[in-house]
Amino acid sequence: MRIPLYTILLLALISVQANAQGLVSGVVKSASDGSTIPGATVVVKGTTTGTVTDLSGAYSVNVPGGSNTLVFSFVGMKTLEVAIDGRTKIDVSLETDVIGIDEVVVIGYASTRKQDLSVAASTIKIGDNNKGRPASLGNLIQGQMSGVKVTQSGDPTAEAAISIRGKGNKSGDAVLIVVDGVPNAPYNPADIETITVLKDAASSAIYGAHAGSGGVIIITTKQAKEGKLSVEANVWQGVQQAWRLPEVLTSEQFNMVWKDASEAAGKTVPATYDPIQFPYGNVTRTDWVDAIFRIGRMEHYDLTLRGGSKDLKALASISYDNVEGTLIRNFS
Hints:
Blueprint: H1 5-19, E1 22-30, E2 41-44, E3 50-52, E4 58-63, E5 69-73, E6 80-83, E7 92-94, E8 104-106, E9 111-113, E10 121-125, H2 137-141, E11 148-151, E12 161-164, E13 176-179, E14 182-183, E15 192-198, H3 201-204, E16 216-221, E17 227-240, H4 251-265, H5 288-292, E18 296-308, E19 313-323
Parallel strand pairs: 1-7, 13-16
Antiparallel strand pairs: 1-4, 2-3, 2-5, 5-6, 8-9, 10-15, 11-12, 13-14, 15-16, 17-18, 18-19
C-alpha cells in the first residue's frame, strides 16, 4: 500500500510540534500590588532547564520537547505551576506565602523561624480554643508544652507557680516574664496573643541580670489594627476543687489504733482513747477535711475594643475575675 507524500509530511510536522515546545517568555509579578519580581526562578518541571527573571521581572526559557509545565517560585511567595499548552507568552502573578505564627518564635532580640533556632523554645498561640480557660498565664500554658510545670494553690489571690525544666538551683529561681520586650511589665492576660517559653540557659542569657536559671517566658500581646471598630467579649464560668484529698480516720478507727499500739507496747490504753471508759470519744462528729475544703466558683469576663484608621489605631481592654479558692479561709 502506498502512502501519499503529503500525509508523511503532515505526520512529521505533528511529531515535531509535539516534541519541541520552543521559546516561552513572559513577566512575573506580585499578586498583592502588581509590581514585577526580579530574581524569581522559572524552571521547566521534570528537567534541569530554567532561568531567573531580570530586573523588570521578564523571563524567557527554552522548553524541551515533551515538557508542558513551568514552575515559578520566589522567596516569600507561593510556588506556582502553569501548563504551557502550546503558548509562547505566559505572564503570572505570585501570591505572598504567609508564615504561620507557630513557625515564628520571638526570642527577645529578634523574631526568627522555629526551624532556624539552635535553642530550646516552645510557642503557643492563644486562639478561640483557649477562650474557655480563665485568663491567667498559668492556666493558659498548663499542659500545653513539655518541660513546663504549673502548680496551682488553693489561694485565689496567689499566682500559679511556674517552673521550667525543674528548679534552677536550691532556692528555685523565679521565671522571668517579658511582655512585648519589657521584663516584668504589667499585662492583661486577655490581651495575650502568643506565649514563647525559652527553656535553656543560652536563650535566657540575653536578659542578663534580669533572668536567673529559672527560664524566660516571652509574651506578645495583641496590637491595634486598622479597620472598623471590632468588639471581642469573653465570658467564662466554672468550678475548681482540690484533687486527691487526704483520707482521715474516724474516731472509732483512731481509738483502735491507740488500742493496738498500747497492747503492742504492753501499756494500758489511756482513758481518753478507751471507748469503754469514754464512749463520747468514739463518735465522729466532724469531717475536718470536708470542713476546710470546698468546690470553688470561678468567673472571668473580658472585653477588647480595637480599630482605627491608617494614621491612628487604638486598642483598649478590660477584664474582671472572681475566683473562689478551694481552701476555706477563716478570719478572726
